[in-house]
Design goal:
Layout (H helix, E strand, L loop, with lengths): L1 E7 L12 H11 L3 E8 L3 H14 L2 E5 L10 H9 L3 E3 L1 H13 L13 E3 L3 E3 L8 E8 L7 E8 L3 H19 L4 E10 L3 H12 L5 E8 L2 E10 L2 H19 L3 E3 L5 H11 L4 E5 L5 H7 L8 E5 L4 H8 L3 H7 L4 H15 L3 E7 L17 E7 L4 E7 L4 H20 L1
Parallel strand pairs: 1-2, 1-3, 3-8, 13-14, 13-15
Antiparallel strand pairs: 4-5, 6-7, 7-8, 9-11, 9-12, 10-11, 15-16, 16-17
Helix pairs in contact: 1-5, 2-3, 6-7, 8-13
């Protein structure tokens, strides 16, 4: 079964508010074996909301509304659902009495417009909202079509505030869905690759994943990383997992060591894992990245087992003082050079006694360098890795603003280190 979520509220069509309810509902529905196929955000307009409801009812087995159940004129979910379904709203006397009691307990006279919160879709089950005045509704109904088969639809109305929606869904909606839905389970898998074009990944993997239409495959590109997400639903958990495992296994065989994680671990987590397995330690000397590499590594719990620390030597004097970079090296080659990157890596390794040292130097912009570095392009980065037996240097030319260049430089450093450890 598939579901559609309709979030009602003009505020979510502005830059200032985000629909987070749909993320929560998607996770909970997936656990019930329901795939969310559509999400819609609609402003507080009765025509637009009714139109969206009709479209959702035409294509989804389960339609969930969040928001629009308040007492004001722009709370229109009940009315839109009623019109789209072709069922009347009835005023529930018990709900109305509960509303009066709620206001009386606060010694406030209930405004007349609050009474609309007692309007219920004919045939719907009222869901008690212990955290607010807007009751939820659950309707399992049949839509009769003149030109096609009858459609079974489950329609659920939920309040918008997360502190009301979440407990209401878990306490009232989930038990109803579990008792109604056919057995279904889902399984997921995530493969992650660094510094490889999205088009390259798709060209190599699409001939494989197209053979598995029962597994939903999604490719995501973000900040120097490609992710392949697999999702499968099946009558049993074992069958769903088997489908995902079979496909991901063939993708892993195709992409080989380009894949740094097959269970969602980040690149920094994988690097620290490889260091730990080999009983190695790491230190870093970062110029243009300003400590970002160290920040990414130390964001992982227990990173101190393998990461000893680092320095951020921006000036030539500090490069010499803390990493032992010879002043003549900078005078001859400039600070942005493979020679200085090498000296930084070897110097920090010597200073800290770590097994491996990384040195990064470059131009992150937005202004050009000075002296010998002035004619060098912004985005030119040198990354060096030094161990007891070998030192290697990588030159990369990056584009974008300062933050993008800095992030991508650390991504190149981590991937270079991962491959060095392999």
């Amino acid at each position: 079964m598939i579901a559609e979520i309709i979030a009602a509220g003009s505020e979510m069509l502005t830059p200032h508010r985000v629909d987070t309810n749909s993320l929560y509902l998607t996770a909970r529905l997936n656990q019930l074996g329901v795939q969310v196929a559509f999400k819609t955000i609609v402003g507080d307009n009765i025509d637009h909301l009714t139109s969206a409801a009709r479209v959702a009812l035409s294509r989804a087995d389960i339609v969930l509304f969040s928001g629009g159940l308040g007492p004001t004129e722009d709370d229109l979910t009940r009315e839109a659902a009623s019109t789209a379904l072709g069922v009347e709203l009835r005023r529930d006397p018990d709900l109305l009495a509960a509303l009066y009691k709620r206001f009386a307990a606060r010694q406030i006279a209930m405004p007349p417009n609050n009474a609309k919160q007692a309007d219920v879709l004919t045939g719907a089950t009222v869901l008690d909202n212990k955290n607010g005045s807007a009751a939820g509704q659950y309707l399992d109904t049949t839509l009769w079509q003149t030109d096609g088969p009858a459609l079974r639809r489950i329609v659920i109305l939920l309040p918008g505030p997360p502190k009301e929606l979440k407990p209401l869904f878990e306490q009232s909606v989930e038990p109803l869905l579990r008792a109604t839905l056919p057995p279904s389970f889902f399984a997921t898998r995530q493969l992650r690759m660094a510094l490889i074009p999205e088009s390259t990944v798709d060209a190599r993997t699409s001939p494989i994943y197209k053979q598995y239409p029962q597994v939903e495959t999604t490719i995501l590109a973000h900040s120097g990383e490609i992710q392949l997400h697999f999702l499968a639903f099946a009558p049993t958990a074992e069958e769903a997992q088997a489908r995902v495992d079979e496909l991901s296994g063939k993708i892993e065989a195709e992409m080989d060591d380009a894949i740094f994680s097959s269970n969602g671990d980040s690149l920094e987590e994988i690097v620290l894992l490889h260091l730990g397995l080999r009983h190695l330690t790491l230190s870093v000397a970062e110029s243009c990245t300003g400590g970002l590499l160290a920040q990414r590594l130390t964001s992982i719990p227990n990173s101190s087992r393998t990461f000893l620390g680092g320095i951020v030597p921006y000036t030539p004097e500090l490069k010499t003082l803390f990493a032992g970079v010879p002043p003549a090296l900078i005078e001859v080659h400039g600070a942005v050079s493979p020679e200085v990157a090498t000296a930084l890596a070897e110097g920090i390794r010597t200073l800290t006694g770590s097994s491996i040292g990384i040195g990064i130097t470059g131009l992150a912009g937005p202004t050009p360098g000075s002296g010998l570095d002035e004619p060098k392009p912004i985005g030119l980065i040198y990354i060096a890795i030094a161990s007891a037996t070998v030192t290697e240097v990588k030159e990369v030319n990056l584009t974008g603003d300062r933050e993008r260049i800095r992030w991508w430089a650390t991504q190149h450093a981590l991937e270079l280190l991962r491959r060095h450890l392999l």
